[in-house]
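pasting for ref
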Amino acid sequence: MNGFNNFINAHQNIVAVIVVISILCFIKISKLNLKNKKFIVAMAISLLLYVIFIFSKFVFCRSETFQSPNLDFLWSYRAMLKGESGMFSQIFLNIMAFIPIGCFANECLCSKRKNMRMLSSVIFGFFVTLSVESLQLFLHKGMFELDDIFNNTIGILIGVVITLFI
């Protein structure tokens, strides 16, 4: 099991891409094979399960450590541009982790107006990421960072846009 964990940790970016592509394929196949109401229910259940996964991964399964909040907006991008090791991967993974929320939310919301559905999906996703970061702060399970909220919201936006094409 330790070898598997080492492989996953070493290849997190590749794993993230594979997970997102798998979720997009699941959405496309579901859309083709399920009637509208069943498809919306499947997307709502998928959204709920994925949000539970996000909370467990980023909050509840972390060890308790207190780090003061980082309110320096876009510090991670400046660090990445300076060549600091691991910053691209951190930004990339924060974006990739929230793409499925944008996809599932946009597919399960029932608004006939595309713009309203997209906006609702982004607002929902923003509150999920804000909740994750706030819980990390209050439960001492990570660091509250404005950059994480920004990157996660970018991921949500990407997910919403992707669903427009599938």
